[in-house]
Amino acid sequence: MENWTTIQHCTISTWDQHLDWMIANSKGHSQGAQVFRMVYSETIYAIWMERNFCIFEKRGREWESIAKEIAYVSCVRAPPKIRCTVQDFKF
């Protein structure tokens, strides 16, 4: 079993560095790139939804709860090609 967060981490201090890191990890048709794109987009969506929840509902959730939701949604939405890979990850 592989940990779902085993993407190469690096120190990012500018938006351009973040974009370079994101592009480098999402290029290609490999399973790793597909998983990265899926989890990255789910993360951006979850951050946006949490932001709206905090602003309009005046409540927030712990980051652990948000991370579990991202992992769960990623498993459910994984396309057939990478479903087994995603489901084998340790969440």
Compact description:
The chain is mainly α and 91 residues long.
Major sheet description: none
SSE arrangement, N to C: HHHH
Helix share, percent: 55-70%
In one word, what is the shape? flat
Count helical runs. Answer: 4
**Poorly predicted ranges:** none
Radius of gyration: 14 Å
Secondary structure layout plus pairing:
Blueprint (H helix, E strand, L loop, with lengths): L14 H12 L4 H27 L5 H15 L2 H9 L3
Helix pairs in contact: 2-3
How would you describe what is shown here?
This protein has helices at 15-26, 31-57, 63-77, 80-88. The chain contains four helices and no strands. The chain has a domain at 30-88. The chain is mainly α. It is 69% helix and 0% strand. The relative contact order is 0.17. Helix 2 crosses helix 3 (63-77). The longest helix has 27 residues, at 31-57.
Short descriptors:
91 residues, mainly alpha, flat
